[in-house]
Specification:
Length: 160
């Protein structure tokens, strides 16, 4: 089973996947990580108590990756540490952007494809540390843009 480590300036986050729940999303994420697609991108959206979002090649939430994914909605709840794919209003528009829940977000269940989770307590600590970083309103009415850049320095794929 594959695992991915997201290395940031605030610590590492180890992820494990729900292959049986969303195999195409897991394969896409792992392939992008292996290719270096995510290296140097950012967590561009942070809402404490809700989620951190990253993986946009443009760094602002408007960029796509090389593939679009059909939804693989499943019964995985969106709770603290859940890894899920971001998308537009079209349920079949997930591409490369992902988010990790900072709390219970049950209103997303069955609406977004959950495909993994934070794998250990140290990773959970890093997630929560990122969730507490200062944010500002980028002009959208949502206080979610990190004041400082939160870089995804590197993603490393391993068997584990």
């Amino acid at each position: 089973m594959k695992r991915v480590t997201i290395s940031t300036d605030h610590g590492d986050m180890n992820l494990e996947f729900f292959f049986d729940k969303a195999p195409k999303h897991m394969d896409n994420f792992v392939a992008l990580a292996e290719s270096g697609f995510y290296d140097g991108t950012t967590f561009h959206r942070v809402i404490d108590g809700f989620m951190i979002q990253g993986g946009c090649p443009r760094g602002d939430g408007t960029g796509d990756g090389p593939r679009r994914m059909d939804a693989e909605f499943n019964d995985t709840p969106h709770v603290l540490g859940t890894l899920s794919m971001a998308r537009s209003n079209d349920p079949n528009s997930a591409s490369c952007q992902f988010f990790i829940c900072l709390g219970d977000a049950g209103f997303l269940d069955g609406q977004y494809t959950a495909f993994g989770k934070i794998a250990d307590d140290d990773s959970l600590s890093t997630l929560q540390k990122i969730g507490k970083l200062p944010t500002r309103d980028p002009g959208t009415g949502e206080n979610s843009q990190p004041v400082e850049t939160i870089s995804i320095n590197k993603m490393t794929v391993s068997d584990g």
